[in-house]
Specification:
Blueprint lengths: L6 E3 L9 H5 L5 E4 L2 E4 L9 H5 L5 E3 L12 E6 L13 H6 L8 E2 L2 H18 L6 E2 L4 H10 L13 H17 L6 E7 L2 H8 L10 E4 H12 L11 H4 L6 H6 L4 E5 L1 H12 L8 E5 L15 H12 L33 H16 L14 H9 L9 H20 L13 H8 L1
Parallel strand pairs: 5-6, 5-8, 7-11, 8-9, 10-11
Antiparallel strand pairs: 1-4, 2-3
Helix pairs in contact: 4-6, 5-11, 13-14
Length: about 450
């Protein structure tokens, strides 16, 4: 199966330091022959490797401003956290208007679509009687994490589309109404704080369109700054509730309710999902889970410090009403295709073969030191054992196993070096003549 991933490796910059393999939440990276290698089936584009790489060898590839030329009418879809990156230099409406200075014809705030999703989620939760807790789909890295590591929780994902996709669909409808142009002449572009949303924007939606392009915020940050001072004001159409989605807890605050739980940071999310998989948190109605620390303000493609960005976002939104007021009716635009598991961690599709490989894996793992040092290029001793069983590594990739093999071999060599052919060898205890002499 072919996967599109926005996270890429620049091999020339990679020094094989193994930092990335220790932080990847899906164990999707190996280091072989001095270079990192991303296992496409496992990668969820969360951006952890981009954050941690000291050599900047991991990058996120999205669309550029030159893509706007493909369309006659271009609509920017700024993420709620977008405005936090330019706070202090201009007001909220001028920051939105700056998008018109880099080639867009209109702006549709994703924060406004987020309020529509929140309203529908609130209604859905009120009538929901199925397995709890439901889990938000707003963060595509978390959805990918569930597909790869927690496939049994796929059925607990909220069956509503994301604010990004809804904004793209509503913006296209508005653009069509404003201009009379056909859909193919209207381009919608999400300004993304993270690589996961770039990847999500390229996914197939079962025939229901999302954005036509996704531009990394970091890629246009400089262009926005240049035009910010002279940018026209663009009237904000979202409220505090919508812009709150830019930080952890904002989605839940927008939905409202008593038993809503939020968690941010990919490794904290893993802890919570592990508990849910074990049967905990059944008294929780809904979980807002964000892969990035602090939510989208901490996205891997953001420029500002996430804590400062959170403060700036709150201050910018102070001038707004609590809600957007009259919201558009989404119609069928909230539809989404069911999320399917990605069972890439299975050892074999055949159950009998998988059990045999599991036995070999555990036997192999028992022979490894259990230090999880990563010097073999795999994240842990268990993943090295898994790689060995899959035929993708050897036990001597472990430096401790290799050292023991060398020690045993060296001792054998020394032992062999002491041996002589029988014609040259002296009997043990000295020669017969010496023994005889000693006896005299």
């Amino acid at each position: 199966m072919e996967y599109f991933h926005s996270v890429r490796l620049e091999q020339d910059k990679c020094k094989g330091c193994t930092n990335c393999i220790k932080h990847c939440p899906t164990e999707a990276i190996r280091v072989r022959e001095g270079k990192a290698h991303i296992i496409q089936e496992r990668c969820i584009d969360c951006g952890e490797c981009i954050r941690i790489c000291p050599n900047h060898a991991k990058i996120a590839v999205g669309d550029g401003l030159e893509t706007l030329a493909l369309y006659r009418y271009r609509i920017a879809l700024p993420a709620p956290a977008f405005v936090s990156q330019f706070a202090g230099r201009a007001g909220l409406e001028q920051i939105l208007g700056s998008l018109l200075t880099v080639g867009f014809d209109d702006v549709y705030e994703v924060a406004r679509a987020a309020e529509v999703v929140a309203r529908t989620t609130r209604r859905f939760l009120a009538g929901y009687r199925g397995k709890r807790p439901l889990i938000s789909q707003a963060c595509p890295a978390v959805v990918g994490l569930i597909q790869v590591r927690f496939p049994s929780l796929v059925e607990q994902l909220l069956p509503l589309t994301t604010p990004m996709d809804l904004a793209a669909r509503l913006a296209r409808e508005k653009g069509r109404a404003d201009t009379g142009l056909p859909d193919e002449a209207i381009g919608t572009f999400f300004i993304s704080p993270c690589p996961a949303k770039i990847t999500a924007g390229r996914q197939q939606h079962g025939g229901v369109p999302g954005p036509d392009g996704v531009i990394p915020l970091a890629a246009i940050y400089g262009d926005i700054l240049k035009g910010l001072a002279a940018a026209p004001a663009y009237a904000c159409r979202a409220g505090v509730a919508g812009y709150g989605w830019g930080q952890s807890g904002g989605e839940n605050a927008s939905i409202g309710g008593q038993r809503l739980l939020e968690v941010d940071g990919i490794h904290h999310v893993i802890e919570v999902l592990t508990r849910i998989e074990a049967g905990d948190f059944q008294d929780i109605d809904y979980i807002e889970a964000q892969a990035c620390p602090g939510g989208c303000v901490g996205g891997a493609l953001m420029v500002r410090n996430p804590y400062l960005a959170r403060l700036e976002l709150r201050q910018l939104a102070r001038c707004l009403p609590a809600n957007a007021g009259e919201l558009p009716e989404p119609g069928n635009n909230l539809a989404t295709t069911p999320v399917q598991p990605r069972p890439v961690l299975q050892l074999d599709a055949d159950l009998a073969a998988a059990l045999e490989k599991m036995h070999r894996l555990e036997t192999t793992q028992a022979l490894l030191p259990g230090l999880d040092c990563g010097s073999c290029g795999s994240p842990s001793c268990r993943t090295l054992a898994e790689d060995i069983v899959r035929g993708e590594a050897q036990d001597t990739d472990c430096v401790f196993v290799l050292r023991e093999r060398v020690r045993v071999l060296a001792e054998e060599v020394v032992e062999l070096a002491r041996k002589l052919p029988p014609s040259m060898a002296k009997p043990e205890g000295g020669s017969n003549s010496e023994n005889q002499g000693n006896s005299n």
